[in-house]
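User: Fold this; tokens only.

Assistant: Input:
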Amino acid sequence: MLAQLAAIFDPETTPQNEPRSGHFETSRMLRPMPTSLLLLAAFTLSGCAGDTNPIRDAAVAAGVTGGEPRPAPDFVARTRPAQVDYLPIGQSAPSRRYRAKDKEEVESAEAQMNRISRVNEARAAAARRAGSQ
């Protein structure tokens, strides 16, 4: 890679038919970069993986860390379930046991709540009048 960068800036390697404007010749310089950047990003992000963590495994193998992972603290073990059941990717959620209300049922429920609200407001007004006497 350093040789490629040196060739870009070397005036002897610049073709005579191309104008030298002082800009990088990006076609030669950027060809190997996407692959290497992609590999670097993949290796770095693999450290975020759950059970398979090559960065941690490499650190353990090199003796940088303490070896076997320590067990979770007691409060963590008590408060978190041993097995978390997530819906796998690509699977639909199970059908619900109830259905959504249609427009008439929603309007009926709103009317019922409004009636209850008016009754509660009347009781509150009566309690205020009784308390002020």
